[in-house]
Amino acid sequence: MIIFEGKYNEIFINRKTVIALGTFDGIHFGHRKIIEGAVKEAKTNNLNSAVLTFKKPVFSYFNKNATNYLINPIDIKTEIISSLGVDYLIYVDLEDGFINLPPEQFLEYLKHNLNAEIIVCGYNYTFGKNAQGDIEYLKENAEKYNINVIVFEEILMENLRVSSSLIRECLLSGDVELANKLLGYNYYLKGRVIRGKSLASRLGFATANIIVDRNLCLKNGVYITLTHYKGNSYPSITNIGYNPTFEQKQRVCETHILKFEKNIYDKIIKIEFMKYLREERKFNSIFDLQSRIKKDIKLAENYFKI
């Protein structure tokens, strides 16, 4: 997969394309249907598949004070899109020139810069200045540029409309189990293990720490997780937050892998979030914290039946 990043008018693709359009935050079940649809159309018509998207949700451009809005860190978003067999991934900068394009100029851009033959998008896709362009506009005007339009309808799961907004709400409230169902995969983080302050090791519970994006929309607290390392999976518990007992100022992701003694500093691990256990809180003593961690481990052992 070839990745383009930058200002919209500086990106060109010479080969004819089928383009999936959307923010695709979370790459949930519905998003994957759209992207997989574009890949299928490209193969059927001997074209190249492309995804035109952004590194951040569009609303973060309009609300500069927005926080905790990101479902997937950019590396995971890229990884999932790549796994779907896409030829070109285009991350367009969210800047005035692109956001304020009139709908007609947006279509011109798709045709002349990105060589679009077919557009694939969701039923609620909007584009152009003040979101003036919508599905009806696409259907009525795309043919002027010899572009075909394929629209995917909404997807319901457990009588809920699958959407990034709902998934964001689930993650912020700790309902990671429902978020996983809506995503169609277990929510996960991935990163290189860094050296922390060894606070957990002093308590008798060594942790693998990775850096997390400060705007990640994941509720702080303790989770039952599954940690992947070198092709193997290990039951674990993970704390997301600021470790208030030790008054840390940086948001961290600390994972204690059960019955695991390997040195994995500077190694890549993947952490799947299975169940939210509790909010993080400041304990009155180190002993109280140790006792609570032992209870968390026991809950994880029961969850994994080990």
From TrEMBL:
InterPro entries: FAD_synthase, Riboflavin_kinase, Riboflavin_kinase_bac, Riboflavin_kinase_bac/euk, Riboflavin_kinase_dom_sf, Rossmann-like_a/b/a_fold. Pathway: Cofactor biosynthesis; FAD biosynthesis; FAD from FMN: step 1/1; Cofactor biosynthesis; FMN biosynthesis; FMN from riboflavin (ATP route): step 1/1. Its EC number is 2.7.1.26, 2.7.7.2. Residues 182-305 form the Riboflavin kinase domain. The keyword Transferase applies. The lineage of its organism: Bacteria, Bacillati, Bacillota, Clostridia, Eubacteriales. GO terms for biological process: FAD biosynthetic process; FMN biosynthetic process; riboflavin biosynthetic process. This is Riboflavin biosynthesis protein. It catalyses: FMN + ATP + H(+) = FAD + diphosphate; riboflavin + ATP = FMN + ADP + H(+). One of its GO terms (molecular function) is ATP binding. NCBIfam families: PRK05627.1-5 (NF004162), ribF (TIGR00083). SUPFAM superfamilies: Nucleotidylyl transferase, Riboflavin kinase-like. It comes from Caloramator australicus RC3.
